[in-house]
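User: Could you check the structure of this?
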Amino acid sequence: MRTWLLTLLAACVSTAAAIGIHSVYPAEILAPKSTVDSGLTLAPLLVVSNDAGMTAESVLVHFTIDNETVAVIYHDSLMVTLPAQASDTLQFADWTPVGRDSMTAIAWTRWAGDSAPDDDTLSQRFFVRVATLGIRSLWPWTDTIDPGWYYPQCEVWNYGNQIATFRLSFSFSGPSPYLDTVWVRNLLPGGSRTVTPETPWRAFRPGMHIYTLACSLAGEMRPDSTVFVCTVWVRGGLHHDVGVAEIRTPSGVMDTTAFQPKARVRNFADSSESFWTYFWIDDTTTDALVYRDSQYVHLDSGQQSLLTFTETQLTVEGPYLASCSAHLAGDHNWSNNARHECFRVGIGAEHNVDIVAVLIPKTAPLDTIITPCFIVLNTGQWTETFTAGFHMEGRSPESTEVADLAVGVSESLYFMPWQARPPGWHRYSAWVRLLQGSGDTLHDSIYVLAPGVAEREVAGMAETAVMPTIISRAQGRLRLLPPADRSQLTATLHDPAGRAVLHLQPGDNDVSYLSPGVYFVRRKGPRIQGSEGPRRIVVTD
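Assistant: Sure, the predicted structure tokens are below.
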């Protein structure tokens, strides 16, 4: 019986070869597979096989990669000739994954005479891994401090899609050296955390210090975002110290019309000072000096002044550098004497509407009803009528028209409520489209917590979506109520980059000199209590 079966099998193979069975198909996708790293170039690899009985076959093999929206982001093809009953590994053109998506690799063959078309397509899902952190300093918030004991403090973000555990180091080099290291453990994707070292910095020796924050994460894909460096001057017998606190104008993009340069200077020392302040503008394309002016200033101890220089007009479009410096004989702290501001000159730059805040929480429990809202601010020079839109992943985009938004005025825009489901990351975007000039686009994500996750530590991810306080510069006063908990002793105002711009006291605080934009109030208490969530402040003209 066994001999008879072998004879029959041989006869079937002989018959298949005689009738010409043709089958070349993708057998296995070797790369990309399982998990790949964002930004790391790889060559897609595919095993193809020829199951034809007797003949060699030539066939065109395609390889594509689709993202989550089923858009083709990569395609390559190769012509291959395979002997009968043979396999080969094909290497396609290099591809660099970008982003944090789940993607699909698809390989297929299409050719006339294929006897088994059902196996001509092979697909395989894989995940693009992102490992990257962000860091900003919460203290020190100024470049000049008095001698004393200080706890450095910073905020770190996990911008990747993997839980991160890493080492964070705080160091000062200079007359009062300092080094401390903190381990940050299990920081969730999209989460942030405020970190303070265990030991304080003993800043009792006067002079300039270099302050360095550095994160050490295995596999970090953007090392430049994990290091922060600045200078801190410790007073000590510091009797003369003046500096430039801000260049108000020009900044950003300027029109070719005339304007008056403005800068804010301050006397940081204990005595009254008189000094020269210089303002100049360089054309960075030609390295030519195109403007220069100066003023003689007298400031009492702790006083500051917004200086307005002679009007000028730049008619050549392109990049420029504005500089301002304060010159005082015997200045003990030269680190704050000069500031520089890059800007551009371009026609039509007076039309501009910015998205200054998106009032959507970073995390939400499953099935929470969220009403998307964002705030727009007319930072241009004309009353604007424009279209604004919002798109939450998984549902249709929405848009609305905003009519006659005056210069320096903000408006809150609301869109259809959204039910937070399913668990995981959900991307959204908000945008402004102007008839002329520049609009704005913002992309972000919200993390929907699975049942039970809310009880675990989600450090720093939950950010309450509260309405901001809007203050005009003409009004110029931010009223801070005394804290209910008297242990909350200090409050500071930070710009979007995390830099502290003002120490706040209970009662009225002068914010008239601040540039229009979004700021954040942070209250701080004892070190073991940390700081409460930020409160948004929008300053308008």
